[in-house]
Amino acid sequence: MTLPPGSAEVALRGELDIATIDDARRQIEAVEAGDPPVLVLDLSALTFVDSSGVRLALLADDRARAAGRRFAVRLGTGQALRVFQALGLLDKLDVLPVRARR
Q1: How far is 66 from 52, CA to CA, in rounded Å?
Q2: Strand pairing category for 94-96 and 8-16
Q3: How far is the C-alpha of 80 from the C-alpha of 67, rounded, in Å?
Q4: Where on the phi/psi map is residue 68: left (φ > 0), alpha (ψ -120 to 50), or beta?
Q5: How many CA atoms lie less than 13 Å away from 60 in the CB half-sphere?
Q6: Running DSSP on this structure, what letter comes out for residue 37?
């Protein structure tokens, strides 16, 4: 899928939990301030994600819907995918494939 011009992506790495959530939230809110037509949250490189990270994605999705924008996540094949899958969120969120490495 090709994203429209002006789309933005926030890629998080490492752990997304109570200790890192504030920084991740600030990154997302900074991108949202630019009002991109699509905001992609790439969680595919996470080694750990807890409920605060899931909540971060769900709230970003809610804000995007309220603003008439599209929100999508990249979950990859690791930890993030397993968590979101276990919670039954794959049908609630727009899930994009991981970008091909060049």
Answers
A1: 21
A2: unpaired
A3: 26
A4: left
A5: 32
A6: S
Q: From edge to edge, which strands make up the β-sheet containing 38-49?
A: 8-16, 38-49, 70-74, 94-96
Ordered per-residue pLDDT tens for the chain, 102 residues = 678 888 999 999 999 999 999 999 999 999 999 999 999 999 999 999 999 999 999 999 999 999 999 999 999 999 999 999 999 999 999 999 987 654
Task: Tell the residue number behind the tokens 């600030």, with chain if given.
Answer: 26
- The residue length of the chain stands at 102
Going from the N-terminus, what domains does the chain have, and what CATH number goes with each?
8-96 (3.30.750.24)
Q: Across-strand partners of 74?
A: 42, 96
Tokens in use for 66? 């309220």
| Whether the model pTM is above 0.90 | yes
Residue type, position 81, single letter: L
* Cα separation, 90 vs 82, whole angstroms: 10
β-bridge mates for residue 45, sequence order: 13
